[in-house]
Amino acid sequence: MEQRKEWFRDNLIDWVKTNRKTNFSDLSAIEQSKEMTRFYLREIVAKITPGALPDDEDDIDDYLVDGANDGGADFIYRSDNSVLIIQSKFHGRGKNEEQESLSHFLRLLQRLYDASSGKGTLNRKAMEAISDIDWENDFFDLRFCTLGKVNASVSFEGETIGIKGLSDIGERVELALQNETELNKSLREALSAGKEPNRTISLRFVPTAGKERWLKFESEGGREMYAGWVSGMELAQLFQEHKYRLFAMNIRDYVGETATNKGIVTTVKGTPDDFVFFNNGISAVATRVIENPKDDAVLDCDQFSIINGAQTVRSLFKAHSKRISTLKEVRLLFRIVLFKAGKDGTFLSDVTRFNNTQNLMRVSDFRSNDPVQKHLRSQFNGISVGAKTCDYKNKRRQERDSNKFPIGMEDIAKTIHSFRYGPDDMFGGTRYLFDVSTKGGYRKVFGDPDMHLSSDEFALAAGTYFMCHAVEGLWKDMRELDSTPGGLERRWPVYFAVGELLRQVYARAGKSLEDDLRFLANPNKWMNSPSSPIKAAVKEVFDLASTALEQSYKKASGDPDFKHRNWFRSEDTLRSVRDELSVIPKYRKNDLPLLRPSSKVDSGTN
Fold it and tell me: Which pLDDT belongs to residue 349?
């Protein structure tokens, strides 16, 4: 039976219904295009080229600049000297895309450059996004995504990008028109990109001067590895055939046009013989490697995945698409490490990690096999939320089970750290959060990575998470009613404000906050009851904390140098929020809320 093809338009409409709880057709034209951008980023870019986006998907909305006076861009994000800019156009079936829309997009960089130079102004989010751009050195990945019909007369063919005063800008711009056909292809690639590789890849090696096709190495412990030379043309054609399925186990994929990737293409074109000396080569893993029975220059590799070298492979494919003839002369060192499927999880994780230490990466992936994470998975499996059993995802997995209550490792880490200490962005972000040294945040949340949490420690972590889950629901309801959420734009500061208020309240009451949080580790005792006094207490704490948070934001935003995005990244924000919260116990005194409100808080002393 032929597998059903996935269509971008249909998936977009279903995605909006699931995530926005509304019909796509009920949205305004502006909202439809904005949701199309979100869908494209989260469901395609985040899976195919994750390095092109913020590590935390919750941060994606920070760079959605769509709205009045946006300069003609919907999304602007800079990472690793590469700036990704997207413009989305949703059209009903059969509607045509206009050439003028494309022409307007081509003038986008000039408008952004003028605004950054003080020759114009854009909306707040657009101005903040372009403030990070290094116009003299950055590379630009411009994508025009449209669901309108594109005929032969509507294209970027022959068009160039120019900015007055930046003569080389055209060499630093990659321009793409993603029409509906291309969006369909991209979606299908994204849906298959993260799946475990189950196909056999055939890889052709180039003989050395000594006529060896490859070398096979075997350790005393029985580990096997193959190494040899492959041509740049071989890798470019391999990518053309298999696309992102080649990188199913890679931590960080191609991040767009950068100086490094540009340099790869330049070397291919100018000095192909030297390429092998300048490049670190490609590393891959496979469960089985055998010599092809029909061609002794080819190795057939089962469950094959490139784990380091996505940047190089994509750049070689770019050179191939530009018809650079010297690509066939390029040689690269290629090695394949064998692993045992289902039995070599730790070994495979280490191989991937050590082969990617030169790149920025999602370090949370490297903690997935810690004993504390495996123990958390087994502990959460014994807890239900309603009729749903908790599914603790210490490893990133794409499959979803509607009968499970999912808990992501990164989500619980960010949640607990935010509640106890503040958002991780204020301390160094995800890299800090999963740093296991004494300076990192990992031990603050999970303790010793090689030890299990005690029953009390687990109950405290679980209760904190479930309480914050209830707060998240209240926060989402508030966000739905407020189009300009200010300090409530993100949930992490909300968790901190709630946590800090509770710490002050319980300290004043002389009661144990940790004991009450441990009680919340069984959500079926309180979470699903409409009349639960605990839920009422959480609601009251949330209302008070969010008011203080907004007051702190309002005061900070009065500064002429205020940057909305930076407010969520500064430790000064935590001090300001604490000051605002400290007023509450002074004027509420006898009726401050407790999570288990069996009694009111005594007035205490000031």
Answer: 53
